[in-house]
Structure formats: structure tokens, C-alpha cells
Design a protein that fits this description.
heterodimer; A: alpha/beta; 2 domains; 19 helices; 8 strands; 54% helix; B: alpha/beta; Rossmann fold
Chain lengths: 420, 350
């Protein structure tokens, strides 16, 4: 039997452990409330490590919103938020969270608890800042926000240096803010331990991604879309590292046996954007064309230690400065020029045939620049690209039939291109 | 022969670009405005359909070709949608100088230091590109000039609530100043002030409903005329083509870069900045001081910062028992007409 003919179980067995890990995360939140321990809401891209280092239990409402969508609650929550006056056009994560809080949803439904304080940054988008401003006022809790300067295609080194200084200064201010609100002090030893765990977690995730370079690809989005969550909810804990190591081991075994996540891998795709959490089955539909997604900038980006200037030594010894550098160089918010270059390199390294891009109707910062990115990839690098419009959390903005038709046509074109 | 000064265009959804720096470099600051009659076509190849219609309109103009005297552009930090459009401008618009000014989202001491660093960088890049020297004295002179403009605009603004000039007339004046040679603007403002000081109140507007106008960047004077035709008079505003441009003055005794940075961080806050909820205190003060019958909050379609603030503002004005109307508007004059029923109903109600 040839390598290509061997079958796989699609999702890794180890990934099943994700449910337990996330379950423990939710239990830790409940435990924190029972123990009277400080808790905080944090937006993705925030320095969650600082919270763990100061013994504050983090909660990520974005993560909870995806749970609502996967459990088919998000539409209801979104409509509740719209009844409160929040526009149809605003972020569906935000509205899911507003609706979930208004509905007193439990954690299984994507609910969350009132925190001791909120921490937002605009690393990814200013929606995060607006979102937490709204909820901090409604729930009457303190809110600290980190302003991250916008790096553009012509930002020079001089600028980059004072950008870093600005973010670092705010991170130090954040430590004071947390101490003031919770009474907990910043412990350098604990910070070092958290930083080490965070680094190790990301490195294993990156190793898993390296395995995805293999043909056939051992891992599909069944493992990565959900597998991503510990990266932003639990960076600093040991448990998720063990889970990722198990995922890595199993994936490596697949590679050694020549087993792919897809039985007959024909096309290797990249998916740019946030998944449609309410309709994850859509991604399985790609399999009927022999297509597998082997790279998602979204799930890779959260293994944040990608900037070569940020070494392990820096992370352990100067965690705040390292954090500032990382917040400015997060893969998901690269300036357009760097983004084009990075996409082209990734396509080559991961042997990708085509890119599917999600023009996210309620995430404008993410979809801004997508048309130029597509044009450059197609014209300068001859990479086939398809843009599909949908929404990450609002199933009302998901036209499955139309999207399937688009994909079908795209696959026909790809067939001609790859096999000409 | 009159010398035509070269211009530096400003792409700013607020008014946070320090014009004094551009003036001290020897250029005329020229704020870009949309054209609601323009058929947008080429910008659609770059910006998705559910993104800000106003900035799409600006990009369309820029792709087609800006004023020939424009030699550079400063884009200033607004919301994260428009911020990311700057990279698209770098792709599509070929000018010798293009700078993204990171006016900070926050307004504390750390942000002030950062903004000063960014202003210094702007100065350095202007000096390097155009081989000019922006001196401290030069900045001080321009601050003085801009303060005179601000003070005069504030005086003229007061004639709106005295029913001597209309909100739309005033809007057109501010718009003119934001694109003109500032010496010419000073002359225009002086003559306007002379004219209106001796003028009697307009009888017609006296009977209209007095409103405070706020919201997204409203740069189409026709929209204000449209509101006036529906029975409103805009006695005060919280707009960038309005009070945000002149409400305070820059401290002339302070070191100029610090003074400019402070000025922009201390002026009434924008929906794009944090904490934008502080806008309410300023709006409340304006509504009460100018005895507005109601508040109209306009969101340009897809203008997220204004959309986020609306339910809070609605709640707060309700508590104050000040009538409040929120309307989303498409950047197109034909589309205004479809909203007449809502505006008329509000005029009748207040």
C-alpha cells in the first residue's frame, strides 16, 4: 500500500483532549469566583501572561463567543444586542457577548462572568477597545486599555523604537493598575515561569505547524481551529503544553507513516481570516474536492513568538519589553507590504496551491487590504485566490449556497491550473 | 505675481493633524473632503463594500488624481478600518511624501510623550523630504496664526445661536478654512465677523427647532442645508468641520511641540479615541449651554466608532430628558431624501 493510499482518522486523537483542557479553564474561572480570586476579561492579543503572573484568572469573551456560535446560540445573542441598539453592522463577537451577558448564559452557551476588571488592547482592532468600554460601563468594572500604534508599510526603525517604548510604558502602567485593583503584586519569578510556559506552548504549536508542510498534511482545521484556544486563553500554564506535545507526537507518527488528515490529498489550501464558527462543517465540504487547508494565518499568528528579535532569553529576562515588541509585530496585523511578502513565502514553504480569503462582514479591520493582497498574490506570484464574504459569528450573514458555488467554480479553475 | 503655495493633503477623520507644522514647513494644509456626487468606481477595487463610504470616496478622488499643487499627504490615526487604508493609499497614490501620524488613542501623560515623539518624526521627515527647516520660532508664529483663526471661528460660531448666521453657512466657512491659505482665511474671517456683528437675527430661523449636531465626519454642507429645510437650525455642533476645529487654543507660552500635542489631546474627545464615552460630558455641556431642543447624532454608514457610542449616548440623553435622534446616513445626496420622514417626525416631536 502506497503512502498516499493509507487512511487517517482525520482529527487527531490527542485533539479530543482539548475539551478537557478547555473544560478545566472554565472550571478554573468558576473556582476563582468561589475563592474570591481576582478575574479579568481580556481581548485576544492582550498580554494574558501578565494576568497569570499576577494571579488573576483570565477570561476571554472572544473565546466564549465562538462557543456560542458553535453551540448555535450566537444568532439569538446577537439579536438581543441589536435590540439594545447595537447596529447590524457591528462586530458579531461583540454582540454575541452583549447578548450572552444579558441572557445570563452559562459557560457552555458561551456565557461569562462579571470580572474584577477588563483589559483591552487594539493590537488586533479597536473594536476590542470599544467592546470593553461598552461592557465595563454596563457591568460597572474598571477597564485598562493598551494603545498600540499602527505600524504601516513605510514605518521606519526610528518610529518602531518609540512605538515600542510607548507600549512598554503602558505595560508597566498595567502592572500598577492590576495591583491597585486586586492588591496582587507583580512577581518576577512567577512572571519568568509563566513566560517560559507561554514560550514552550507556542514553540510546540509552531512545530505542529512545521509538520503541516508535509505532503500529505497530517493535520486539518479539525485540529487547529479548536486547538488554537489554549494559545490565547492559557499561555503560561503547563497543561496545554502537554496537550500540544501529544498532538505533535501523533501528527509526527502520521508523517512517518505517510498518512494524511485527508485520504486523497489533491489540493493544499491556505485559509485567511477567522473561521465561521457557526458553520464549521463548511470546511469539511472542501474535502470532496480533495482539498485540505494546511495553513491559517489566524491560528498560526497566536503562537506569537515569531519575531526573530524576540528570543527565549529576552522573553524570560525582559518579559515586558518582549511583550511590547510582540504586540507590534503580531503576524495577523502585518502591514500590507509585509503581509503580501509573508503570504508568498508561506505559500511556497507549505506547498500551497491556492488561498481562500474570508471577507469578514463584521471584522472590517481584518478584511481591509484583502483585495490588494489578493491582487498581488495573483499577479505577482501567480497564486490562485478566492474571496468569500461571510461572518465569523453571525449565521445570518452566511450564504452557504452562494459560497459553495464560488468554491465549486474555483476548484474547477484550480483543477485546470494545477493539472494543466 | 501671487505665489501659489504647494499643499500637503490631510486625510483625517478627525482634526488632529497639526496644521502649524505643515505651515511652518512652508506648505498649505489641505484637508481632503468627500464629494457626495462622485460615482465611486476604482476605489471599489481596493475597499470592500461594507467599509466606510467617506474614506472610499476620498480614495476614489486620490486615484483619479488630486489637486496638482498637492505634494504630500499626512494620514492621521482615526478608526482601525481607515487606519489600514493608509497602506492602500501607499499602493495607489504616488506622492513624494506620505506619512501616517499615530495620534494616540489615549490621552494621558504616556500618550502625550508618544505623540510628541511622533510629531518630531513628522517634522524630521518633512525636513528630510523637502529640504526645509521647521524652526521653533516658525512653529510659534504659526501657532499664533492658527489661534487667531480658532478664536475668530469661535466668535463667529456664537452667531449661530443668536440666529444671525445659519449652521450651514458656518459649516461652509469652516470647510473653506480647512482647505485654504491661512492668511486668506484670516482675511475672510475678519470680514465675515465685521459683516455679521451688525446684522439682525434672521426671523425665519428663530422659529426652527434648535439642535446640537454630532456624529461622524459630516463634510457635506448640503446635508446641513437639508436639515435646515426640514425645520431645524443647528445652533451648535460637535463636528470636525465645526467646533472640534477651534474649541480650544494652543498654549503659546509652552514649547511648541509639547503645546501642539497637548492641544490635540485636551480638546473634546472623538468617537475614535478612548474613553470615547467622555464625549457625553462635552455634548451635555453644549446642549445645555446652547439650549438645544434636541440632539441629532449622525453615523455615516459603517462608521463603527459612532455606532458603538450610540446606545450609551441615547441612554444618557434620555436620563437628561433631552430629545435625541440617531440616524445612519449613506454618503450620497439622493439617499438623504429617504430619511426626511424620520427627521420631520423628530422636528415635530421636540
Amino acid at each position: 500500500m502506497s503512502k498516499q493510499q493509507q487512511t487517517s482518522n482525520k482529527m487527531l486523537n490527542a485533539t479530543q483532549g482539548l475539551k478537557n483542557i478547555m473544560g478545566r479553564h472554565f472550571l478554573a474561572i468558576e473556582q476563582a469566583f468561589r475563592d474570591g480570586k481576582p478575574t479579568a476579561w481580556a481581548t485576544s492579543g492582550s498580554p494574558v501572561e501578565v494576568l497569570y503572573a499576577m494571579d488573576v484568572q483570565p477570561m476571554l469573551p472572544e473565546n466564549s463567543a465562538t462557543v456560542s456560535a458553535a453551540q448555535k446560540f450566537s444568532k439569538n445573542f446577537i439579536e438581543k444586542a441589536e435590540d439594545e441598539g447595537y447596529s447590524y453592522d457591528l462586530c458579531s463577537y461583540f454582540k454575541t457577548n452583549v447578548g450572552a451577558v444579558l441572557s445570563n448564559a452559562n459557560m457552555i452557551q458561551g456565557g461569562t462572568r462579571k470580572p474584577s476588571f477588563m483589559l483591552s488592547t487594539d493590537v488586533i482592532c479597536d473594536t476590542h477597545v470599544n467592546w470593553f468600554q461598552v461592557q465595563a460601563e454596563r457591568l460597572n468594572v474598571p477597564h485598562y486599555s493598551i494603545d498600540v500604534p499602527h505600524v504601516v508599510s513605510n514605518t521606519n526603525n526610528r518610529q518602531y523604537n518609540y512605538f515600542k517604548k510607548y507600549v512598554s510604558e503602558q505595560l508597566y502602567e498595567l502592572l500598577d493598575f492590576i495591583q491597585e485593583v486586586t492588591g496582587n503584586e507583580y512577581d518576577e519569578e512567577k512572571a519568568r515561569e509563566v513566560s517560559k510556559n507561554s514560550w514552550d506552548l507556542s514553540m510546540v504549536w509552531q512545530q505542529i505547524y512545521e509538520l503541516r508542510k508535509n505532503v500529505p498534511c497530517p493535520i486539518s482545521t479539525r485540529d487547529t481551529f479548536g486547538g488554537l484556544f489554549p494559545l490565547f486563553t492559557m499561555p503560561g500554564l503547563k497543561e496545554p503544553i502537554r496537550l500540544y506535545k501529544r498532538m505533535y507526537k501523533e501528527a509526527k507518527e502520521r508523517v512517518e507513516k505517510g498518512v494524511g488528515a485527508l485520504k486523497h490529498e489533491k489540493y493544499r489550501l491556505m485559509f485567511e481570516g477567522i473561521p465561521y464558527w457557526h458553520s464549521l462543517k463548511w470546511f469539511s465540504n472542501l474535502e470532496k474536492y480533495g482539498a485540505i487547508i494546511v495553513y491559517e494565518p489566524y491560528t498560526y499568528a497566536f503562537s506569537k513568538y515569531m519575531n526573530p528579535k524576540v528570543t527565549k532569553e529576552m522573553v524570560l529576562n525582559k518579559p515586558i519589553e518582549a511583550m511590547a515588541e510582540l504586540m507590534l509585530s503580531f503576524w495577523y496585523i502585518y502591514d500590507l507590504k509585509t503581509r503580501i511578502k509573508k503570504f508568498a513565502e508561506t505559500v511556497k514553504e507549505w506547498k500551497i496551491d491556492a488561498v481562500i480569503m474570508h471577507e469578514n462582514l463584521s471584522c472590517r479591520p481584518n478584511s481591509c487590504g484583502l483585495y490588494d493582497l489578493k491582487r498581488h498574490l495573483m499577479e505577482d506570484y501567480n497564486i490562485p485566490c478566492l474571496i468569500v464574504s461571510a461572518d465569523m459569528n453571525d449565521p445570518r450573514k452566511f450564504n452557504e449556497e452562494q459560497m459553495n458555488n464560488q468554491v465549486e467554480t474555483f476548484m474547477e479553475i484550480l483543477e485546470q491550473k494545477v493539472h494543466k | 505675481m501671487k505665489t501659489i503655495m504647494k499643499k500637503i493633503a490631510i486625510f483625517d477623520s478627525g482634526v488632529e493633524t497639526p496644521e502649524e507644522i505643515i505651515l511652518a514647513a512652508g506648505f498649505t494644509p489641505y484637508r481632503l473632503f468627500g464629494d457626495p456626487n462622485l460615482q465611486v468606481d476604482r476605489a471599489n477595487e481596493h475597499i470592500p463594500p461594507t467599509h466606510c463610504l467617506w474614506t472610499r470616496n476620498l480614495l476614489e478622488q486620490a486615484i483619479r488624481g488630486l489637486d496638482k499643487d498637492i505634494v504630500g499627504l499626512i494620514a492621521t490615526h482615526g478608526c482601525d478600518r481607515t487606519n489600514r487604508e493608509f497602506d492602500i493609499w501607499l499602493e495607489c497614490v504616488k506622492l513624494g511624501f506620505m506619512f501616517f501620524l499615530n495620534s494616540p488613542r489615549k490621552r494621558d501623560k504616556v500618550s502625550l510623550r508618544f505623540f510628541m515623539d511622533d510629531l518630531k518624526e513628522l517634522i524630521a521627515q518633512l525636513e528630510e523630504t523637502f529640504k526645509v527647516k521647521i524652526s521653533e520660532n516658525g512653529l510659534k508664529e504659526e501657532i499664533k496664526k492658527m489661534n487667531q483663526i480658532r478664536a475668530m471661528l469661535k466668535k463667529i460660531s456664537e452667531f449661530r445661536s443668536k440666529m444671525i448666521i445659519t449652521g450651514s453657512e458656518f459649516h461652509a466657512l469652516v470647510k473653506n478654512v480647512q482647505q485654504s491659505n491661512k492668511d486668506e482665511s484670516l482675511k475672510l474671517l475678519k470680514s465675515t465677523l465685521d459683516k455679521i456683528t451688525s446684522k439682525d437675527p434672521l426671523q425665519k430661523i428663530d422659529k426652527k427647532k434648535k439642535i446640537l449636531l454630532t456624529g461622524s465626519d459630516i463634510d457635506d454642507t448640503e446635508f446641513l442645508k437639508y436639515l435646515e429645510d426640514l425645520g431645524f437650525t443647528i445652533v451648535i455642533d460637535d463636528l470636525c468641520v465645526g467646533t472640534k476645529y477651534f474649541w480650544h487654543t494652543v498654549d503659546e507660552g509652552e514649547e511648541p511641540i509639547k503645546a501642539l500635542a497637548k492641544y490635540h489631546l485636551e480638546k473634546p474627545i472623538y468617537a475614535t479615541k478612548f474613553p470615547s464615552y467622555e464625549r457625553f460630558n462635552h455634548l451635555k455641556m453644549l446642549a445645555q449651554t446652547y439650549k438645544a431642543d434636541g440632539v441629532i447624532n449622525i453615523a455615516q454608514k459603517f462608521c463603527e466608532p459612532v455606532l458603538y457610542d450610540h446606545p450609551y449616548l441615547s441612554k444618557k440623553f434620555k436620563e437628561l430628558e433631552i430629545p435625541y435622534l440617531f440616524v445612519e446616513v449613506t454618503y450620497n445626496r439622493e439617499a438623504y431624501k429617504q430619511l426626511s420622514t424620520r427627521f420631520s417626525a423628530f422636528a415635530e416631536m421636540i
